[in-house]
Amino acid sequence: MKIIDLESWERAPHYRLFKGLAHPHYAVTVPVEAGVLVDSARERSISAFSCLLYALSTAANQVSAFRMRFRGEDVVEYEIVHPSYAAKLPGASQGVFGYATFEYTDSLAEFDRRRKAAPINIPGQDNPNNERDDLIYCSSLPWLAFTGLTHAYGGPRDTVPRFTLGKFQQRHGGLEAQLCVQVHHALVDGYHIGQLVETVENICATPADDLV
């Protein structure tokens, strides 16, 4: 983790402008074509959600703005951020979810193994991951092909990016899902979201065998 030098940081004026707003978060929803990766990963029993979670986690680690967080009056940049995602609680009714967190790896096969092995915790329950902010939060709405969405945030100083994936559909000859990205404007601009989405699309256009 490094501390950003606010005296030399080009985006320092934007940081100072947006950090004090009452509602500094904004969301963008875009379609993502994922057929190449998802279809090729099926032979390895890797789910479509796991593929997209891998693509999002990898992209967030490649675009530095998604690794930045507030620390008091400073801005810090983590070397690596890790996925924390909503998953069905074992034994619970349909739609009742918890949260699972695991360490990121750039190997798709190992990423999927870690995801499947991660314990799913009850929301609000004491958990060592509750105090971490070197995370990205991911969820899914597999029942809806939504066109817009906003996420719950803890307050204007909450800088952890949120992602939600929608229903996978066959469109334009390929497999597509809606992706909502919500961020803190003091750290992430539309340009950075564009970089992230482009990276996600490039990963999703890569056969699974090239990512294992």
UniProtKB/TrEMBL annotation:
InterPro entries in the record: CAT-like_dom_sf, Chloramphenicol_AcTrfase_AS, Cmp_AcTrfase
Protein name: Chloramphenicol acetyltransferase
Transmembrane segments: none
One GO term of the biological process aspect: response to antibiotic
Reactions mediated catalytically: chloramphenicol + acetyl-CoA = chloramphenicol 3-acetate + CoA
Primary enzyme class: transferase
Keyword Acyltransferase on entry: yes
Organism for this UniProt entry: Oceanidesulfovibrio marinus
Main function: This enzyme is an effector of chloramphenicol resistance in bacteria.
Keywords assigned by UniProt, alphabetized: Acyltransferase, Antibiotic resistance, Transferase
EC id: 2.3.1.28
GO-annotated molecular function: chloramphenicol O-acetyltransferase activity
Family according to the record: Belongs to the chloramphenicol acetyltransferase family.
Matching SUPFAM superfamilies: CoA-dependent acyltransferases
